[in-house]
Design goal:
The protein is of the alpha+beta class. Helix content is about 25%, strand content about 55%. The chain is globular and about 40 Å long. This is Nuclear transport factor 2 family protein.
């Protein structure tokens, strides 16, 4: 599987709301630098798994719609929109945010990430 296919598979799975799935994709030394509306957030392996657990408490379904994905050497750049369905209203799909992320892949895992997000 190419690194582009690997990243696509990560985002098309339920990894963003399921820490057990996410665990399979993360390098033990993963670091995600996330520029969000709250400023810079630094996430490591444990905090990324904790975030997936937190999201699973609020959302019953997660869907990523990828608009762009480009791979070069050990880097994959992806632009996507993240949609969720809440526990309170599982029939309505809600746009959570738009994301642009660059992932460095090491040992066939997500190693370094640089992400920006914008609420709709």
């Amino acid at each position: 599987m190419s690194i582009k296919e690997f990243v696509q598979k990560f985002y098309k799975s339920d990894a963003l709301i399921d820490s057990e799935i996410m665990k399979a994709y993360l390098h033990p030394e993963v670091i995600l630098e996330w520029n969000s509306t709250k400023g810079l957030i630094m996430l490591d392996n444990d905090s990324m798994l904790a975030m997936a657990n937190e999201l699973s408490r609020a959302y019953v379904r997660s869907k990523v719609r990828i608009s762009h994905i480009i791979a070069e050497d050990d880097l994959v750049s992806i632009r996507y929109s993240h949609y969720v369905k809440t526990i309170e209203n599982p029939r309505e799909e809600m746009l959570l945010a738009h994301f642009s992320t660059i992932w460095q892949i090491k040992d066939d895992k997500l190693y370094r990430g640089y992400q920006m997000s914008q609420f709709s």
